[in-house]
Amino acid sequence: MSKIIFETVEVPGYSGRAVFAKKGDHIRVTDVEGKQIGDVFALSTADHSEFLSASVTRATIWKLFPEVGECFYSTLRRPILTFVEDSSPGVHDMLFAPCDLPLFQTLGCTDYHPNCRDNYLKASAEIGIQHRVVPDPVNIFENTPPRSDGKLIAGPMPTKPGDHVVFRAEMDLVFVLTACSCDIGMNDINGGKSTPLRIEVLRG
To answer: Taking the domains of the chain in order of start, what are their residue ranges?
Structure first.
């Protein structure tokens, strides 16, 4: 990958960040400490109503998740990201919605709990996107495979510190990443706490 690091953004646990990427840029997401899910969102800079769609991607590739070399598709069925590289164990999800406050309330939280829905809205608003619709994310490093009976299970996250994935931008886009805030229930998801992720935009 003959590109240089153009921008590096740290995403603290329980938070989200957004970066701009140009068509052809590579975007590397690294699990800094291991066992951390990242919720990935991507929106066209030309039209924020066109964004990465998990459901359109599944319907286009006829798989639950792309393999390296395959694309994620937008709401207009256009390639928006290509899955370029994966140094992790390769366990990811494209079925679950982002965690939200009602989820944590069902798990017993009585006070506010950080969540990917709110963190997405905050990160996108900070760069001027007023987006009322929160897309379903691409949940990298998330171990929630379907069973043969159709039920979904949550297993421990298998990533180690430094594991990463790389995407290629197929249009000028906004890339939003949240460090999943789930720290209770669901078989000790995220190792029981939300930890940092790193975004690197590579250009050249």
So the answer is: 35-194
